[in-house]
Design a protein that fits this description.
InterPro entries: Homeodomain-like_sf, HTH_TetR, Tet_transcr_reg_TetR-rel_C_sf. Keywords: DNA-binding, Transcription, Transcription regulation. The chain is mostly helical. The protein has a domain of about 140 residues: Orthogonal Bundle (Tetracycline Repressor, domain 2), CATH 1.10.357.10. Helices cover about 70% and strands about 0% of the residues. It has nine helices and no strands.
Length: about 200
């Protein structure tokens, strides 16, 4: 029995993730991480490595939980990019409203602190934002709009997602957040309609 970890590593990682999510990297002290996970510093280092390594594992954990849900929402409406974006925002708003998790978004929280993160951490955060954009861009691909318009819309949708997380942390109401998401969906729909190739109606 000696030498075997007497705790649930996955559960400890989830608790550490919540600390980073709620406090941000800078304010997630080793004492706070230890208190949340129930582990001493030696066990933290022995299991997860440095604080930076633990942070990156928490980012991966966050994406493994929520990224799969976002992927499902965006791919569940093949041929209807507007509905896919609506489903994406519905899921985001449901997560924000969930009282069992911290307010906001771990990626948004981390992105706001990117200038103070170590390069490897900052690069991972940027990569996760790019992954969000790629997922949204793929959902928009069924549109007949040109590639540049779709690229810009994908960036816009991700920007709104991050804004919802920031606004929620600042105390914006569910109604206010839903209004932002609704206007974003209208913008996507209107932009796709205007960007349809002109030669579709010619002949």
């Amino acid at each position: 029995m000696s030498g075997r970890k007497q705790f649930d590593v996955g559960a400890a990682l989830d608790q550490a993730m919540r600390v980073f999510w709620q406090r941000g990297y800078a304010e997630a002290s080793l004492d706070a991480l230890g208190s949340a996970t129930g582990l001493g510093r030696g066990s933290l280092y022995g299991t997860f490595g440095t604080k930076d390594a633990l942070f990156r594992q928490c980012l991966d954990r966050y994406v493994s939980i929520y990224g799969a849900q976002y992927e499902q929402a965006l791919t569940a409406h093949s041929g209807d990019p507007v509905r896919a974006v609506e489903a994406y925002f519905d899921l985001i708003l449901s997560r924000i409203a969930d009282p069992s998790v911290p307010v906001g978004c771990l990626i948004a929280q981390s992105a706001a602190q990117s200038p103070t993160l170590k390069e490897e951490n900052s690069t991972q955060v940027r990569g996760l934002l790019d992954l969000q954009r790629q997922r949204v861009r793929a959902a928009l691909a069924d549109s007949s709009a040109d590639a540049r318009t779709l690229d810009e819309l994908a960036t816009f949708v991700v920007a709104v997602n991050q804004s919802l997380a920031v606004l929620s942390r600042a105390g914006a109401s569910d109604a206010e957040l839903r209004s932002v998401a609704r206007l974003a969906c209208t913008t996507v729909a209107d932009t796709l309609a205007r960007a349809a190739p002109e030669d579709v109606t010619q002949g």
